[in-house]
Design goal:
Layout lengths: L2 H14 L16 E4 L2 E5 L12 H14 L14 H14 L3 E5 L2 H11 L6 E5 L4 H9 L3 E5 L4 H10 L6 E6 L11 H10 L3 E5 L14 H5 L5 E5 L9 E5 L1 H10 L1 H4 L6 H16 L2 H19 L3 E2 L6 E7 L1 H13 L2 E2 L2 E2 L9 E6 L6 H17 L5
Parallel strand pairs: 2-12, 4-5, 4-6, 6-7, 7-8
Antiparallel strand pairs: 1-2, 3-9, 8-9, 10-11, 11-14, 13-14
The structure holds pyridoxal-5'-phosphate.
Pyridoxal-5'-phosphate binds next to helix 4.
Length: 390
């Protein structure tokens, strides 16, 4: 079989399974209205939760750093890529997360892979929530430690697994702070209690919670008033830029500089991105208003969808999964939304369990009252058309 023929066959299998993925082109700044494949759409699927990705101050700061330092960082942090901007941003992240220190990675993905492949060792076990992000799963695969999966946010099951893994040298509990597909918040208070009781360590991936949850937006730790051993995060969601980080003790950071291969062998993010992220954290720290606006919209959308009869999963986070059930119906729903000028993707198995296909809405502080009215009107109309609600 020729090389092309072989790839073609694999792709056909994928299409038959309904798993084919395609890129869409967004020819506009990340605003609520974007040109999606040349058609104007009101977007309810962005991770730009606070609407900061095109904030003038962030752009100004990035341009200033760019003029001074150029577009690329020229090397890994340990060779020629480390600038004062990287260090300033790490201090800023540490103070924002209330930890001793922080370390930048090129992405949240690489931060997860770097931590999980270096920290747990052979003879250790990682206890991982069933719905953890793909980058945690990949980190576990690269680790020499064993991995045990516990049922999604099921503390009884986690405790049972902790009891059954006492023969291991060390136990690491790893969880998303806010789960990407279900919008659930991990019960970090209970996880921390179990961790102390069974002498385990806690690693939290706060990608969706950073800038969003807690009184000052510091994330899940602040929301529950707990201090995990390792906090991982991204600068690409509410922060609005790019890059990932780990926040924790100075010792942990030194360890990762020496052991995390995704830190050591990766080119540093550009100083301009650091400058933008720094400005973003300044804004997040100095104002509650964006977060308050965001949560008011989250509650408005969830309440109204439930009122008209939709099944909506999750806790109060910007991720709002509207359960449709059947995979084809979810696709029809999403296509109908697009016809109405609203972009929100259908999420199907195997990303979510059979029978739980959904429309995954995300809301941002940049959505206006009239955007939300348009969304709710269209959802109600389509829900009636598809005989999901009366
Ligand atoms: C988005 C996300 C990541 C990856 O972050 P990037 O900076 O985009 O690589 C990791 N974990 C979770 C839970 C995420 O949602």
């Amino acid at each position: 079989m020729s090389f092309d023929h072989w790839i073609h066959e694999r792709m056909e299998n994928r299409k038959r399974a309904g798993l084919y993925r395609e890129l869409r082109t967004m020819n506009t700044a990340p605003l609520p209205h974007m040109l999606v494949n040349e058609k104007e759409q009101l977007v309810f699927s962005s991770n730009n939760y606070l609407g900061l990705a095109n904030h003038p101050v962030l752009m100004e700061e990035a341009v200033r750093a760019l003029r001074e330092f150029g577009v690329g960082s020229s090397g890994s942090r340990l060779t020629t890529g480390n600038t004062e901007w990287h260090e300033k941003l790490e201090d800023k992240i540490a103070s924002f997360k209330k930890t001793e220190a922080a370390l930048l990675f090129s992405s949240g993905y690489l931060a997860n892979v770097g931590v999980l492949s270096s920290l747990p060792q052979k003879g250790d076990v990682i206890l991982s929530d069933q719905l953890n992000h793909a980058s945690i799963i990949d980190g576990c695969r690269l680790s020499k430690a064993d991995t045990v999966i516990y049922e999604h946010v099921d503390m009884k099951h986690l405790e049972k697994q902790l009891q059954e893994t006492q023969a291991y040298a060390r136990r690491f509990i790893v969880t998303d702070g806010v789960f990407s597909m279900d919008g659930t918040i991990a019960p970090l208070d209970e996880i921390s209690k179990l961790a102390s009781k069974y002498n385990a360590y806690v690693i939290v991936d706060d990608a969706h919670a950073t800038g969003v949850l807690g009184e000052c937006g510091r994330g899940t730790s602040e929301f529950f008033g707990v201090f995990p051993d390792v906090v991982i995060g991204t600068l690409s969601k509410a922060i609005g830029v790019e890059g990932g980080f780990v926040a924790g003790s100075k010792l942990l950071v030194d360890f990762l500089v020496n052991h995390a291969r995704t830190f050591i062998f990766q080119t540093a993010i550009p100083p301009a991105s650091c400058a933008a992220a720094y400005a973003s954290l300044d804004i997040i720290e100095s104002s509650k208003e964006l977060r308050e606006r965001l949560f008011q919209k989250i509650q408005q959308i969830k309440n109204r969808l439930k009122e008209v009869g939709f099944l909506v999963y999750g806790d109060d986070t910007p991720i709002i999964p509207v359960i449709i059930g059947d995979a084809e119906k979810a696709v029809s729903f999403s296509n109908r939304l697009q016809e109405e000028g609203i972009y929100a993707p259908a999420i199907r198995p195997p990303t979510v369990p059979n029978g739980e296909s959904r429309i995954r809405l995300t809301v941002t502080a940049a959505h206006t009252e009239s955007h939300i009215e348009q969304l709710l009107r269209s959802c109600t109309q389509i829900g009636r058309e598809l005989r999901m609600i009366s």
